Amino acid sequence: MFSLIGIQVQGLDEAFSGKTFFGAATNTNSELAPGKAVLSALNRSQQNRG
Questions:
Q1: pLDDT above 70 coverage of the chain, percent
Q2: Cα 26 to Cα 13: distance, rounded to the nearest angstrom
Q3: CB-hemisphere CA count at 13 Å for 41?
Q4: Which one, of 35, 13, 17, lies nearest residue 25 by Cα?
Q5: Which one, of 14, 17, 40, 16, lies nearest residue 27 by Cα?
Q6: Residue 37 CB-density burial (10 A; 0-12 exposed, 13-18 middle, 19+ buried)
Q7: In whole angstroms, what is the distance from residue 27 CA to residue 30 CA?
Q8: Residues 39, 22: contact at Cβ < 8 Å?
Q9: What pLDDT is attached to residue 13?
Q10: Which among 3, 2, 14, 10 is positioned nearest to 41, based on CA atoms?
Q11: pLDDT tens, residue by residue, 1-16
Q12: What does each C-alpha distance from 42 to 1, 20, 21, 31 come to in angstroms?
């Protein structure tokens, strides 16, 4: 069995104000999947920084 998690993160500082980023992750451990989804959203925010 595995967990599929989706998460939405909204920027609050000057650089990301009003921007929304989504992350997703799967893992067999349901306690680790949300953390991986948050990291996925943060990685997307850094890719769109420029």
A1: 94
A2: 29
A3: 19
A4: 35
A5: 40
A6: buried
A7: 7
A8: no
A9: 76
A10: 10
A11: 889 999 998 888 777 7
A12: 26, 10, 8, 18
Dihedral sign for Cα 10, 38, 34, 5, please. Answer: positive
The residue type at 5: I
What stretches of the chain adopt beta strand conformation (E)?
3-10, 20-27
The DSSP annotation for 36-48 comes to HHHHHHHHHHHHT
- pLDDT attached to residue 2: 86
Q: Which amino acid is at 14?
A: E
What is each CA distance from 19 to 2, 4, 24, 27, 29, in whole angstroms? Answer: 30, 24, 17, 27, 30
Place of tokens 């890719």: 47
Instruction: Assess whether pLDDT exceeds 80 at residue 28.
Output: yes
Structure tokens at 18: 């009003």
